[in-house]
Amino acid sequence: MKHNLVAGEWIPAADAVENRNPADTADLVGLFALADAAQTNTAIEAAHAALPKWAASTPQVRSDLLEAVAQALFARADEIGTLLAREEGKTLAEAKGETIRAAQIFRFFAGEALRVAGDALASVRPGVSIEVSREPVGVVGLITPWNFPIAIPAWKIAPALAYGNTVVFKPAELTPACGHVLAEIIHDAGCPAGVFNLVVGSGSVVGETMVNHPLVDAISFTGSVGVGRAIAAKAASWMKKVQLEMGGKNPMVVLDDADLDIAVPAVLNGAFYSTGQRCTASSRIIVQAGIHDAFVERLAAETAALTVGNPLDAATQIGPVVSERQLAGNLSYVALAASEGAEVLGGERLNRDTEGWFQAPALFLNATNQMRSSREEIFGPCASVIKVADFDEALSVANDTEFGLSAGICTSSLKHARAFKSGAKAGMVMVNLPTAGVDYHVPFGGRKGSSHGSREQGRYAAEFYTTVKTAYEFGG
Question: 261 with 375, same domain?
């Protein structure tokens, strides 16, 4: 059994969770200790005790730690990628790519640890000098989802440590193995006791304890809208800093002047790769009338031709859904779309050589933007296709959602590309690219119901993981 990491020690727990391969439920990935409230409290107290020394450590010390973690991730990318594919269901290529991205994130923030900048300003008063500096926010609770079980933890943990904070990390119960191996790497790289703590457990126990503990200064959460809103409300009562990344119902607009050789692959990638289990997935395909029929004919053919199977098989393009519960939810939306009047292509449960949670990718044709299946996040390989008359209607439909994470357009018109980039009410906009797939060195996040608080990734991460101090001095 894999234990939790608390105050530099691997600590057992009374209960454990099974981690099974969603492509082969007979494959037990591992058993992982489940932290209770008491163990979570101990981890928080350890992080609080370790904070003064870590916050006062030199930038070189923090940079060296993060670089060591990056090197280990690069060196073990094949091994960790295989583990990720087994526990989450991503194809092996996607899983290895995610592991390498995690390594790149740690390397990026190893550099950022050495570049924490401030300002020296002239005062409006004679003889007074002003310094503006950044300091660690404190003890940070990190709550991550199952769909990117090593990349999302990396883009939270790396900046937290780079800027001198201490961490209590709760990975998703569905995918604890990647979180555990990352904790092992951080520990073995020489991270001081208490600076980084791993507590696997439920949101109702570990998450609640973190949100309500007076020694936790900030919470960064990625997950569902409902849980995110509950965390925001509870954290507000404690005056904690909060960063929330939540859902998406992302539009991909295809205009009459789009190049189908670009548009169809972009939609296939955005809608169905990673089994559609991405908050940035293209789940609403908004197509102008003139190109609609030709686009749908080709998209339907290429969707049906996608290979769904074991993620460790090199021929597989789409792996399994992460769990039986998630598959049941996806299938209920397939039935809902049909009942709402959409023409459903695909979407059925598939049988393969092993017992697993396989689903054919689904297109909901002749959909409208008012259908529940077009408005609610499904988080699976399902996409609605909505016909519109012109660019103005396309932009209006794209923005008619409670979410605002990512939005895309396929067009050969510079005019329409520019108008969409400025008019889309989303945090990220893609032109002739999938809505999913972002760089690690630039800000990630959205607006409306998709995100709350400071952006993640890149230099913008400093906004959440630091607090600003303005110091005045007279004379000298």
Answer: yes
Q: How far is CA 50 from the centre of its chain?
A: 28
CB distance 380 to 277 below 8 Å: yes
Report the C-alpha gap between 46 and 67 in whole angstroms: 24
178 is catalytic: no
Domain count, the chain: 2
**Measured between alpha carbons, how far is residue 337 from residues 224, 280, 330, 371 in Å?**
21, 21, 11, 8
Q: What's the pTM? A: 0.96
Task: State whether 314 and 219 are in the same domain.
Answer: no
Catalytic: 279? yes
Handedness of CA 238, 239, 244, 246 (dihedral sign): positive
Q: In terms of residue numbers, what domain contains 317?
A: 250-431
Please write the tens of the pLDDT for every residue from 130-167.
999 999 999 999 999 999 999 999 999 999 999 999 99
d(CA 34, CA 198): 11
Residue 436 covered by a domain: no
Among 87, 88, 98, 279, the one annotated catalytic = 279
Active-site residue, from 245, 377, 382, 456 = 245
Domain match, 255 and 392 both = yes
**34 and 108 belong to one structural domain:** yes
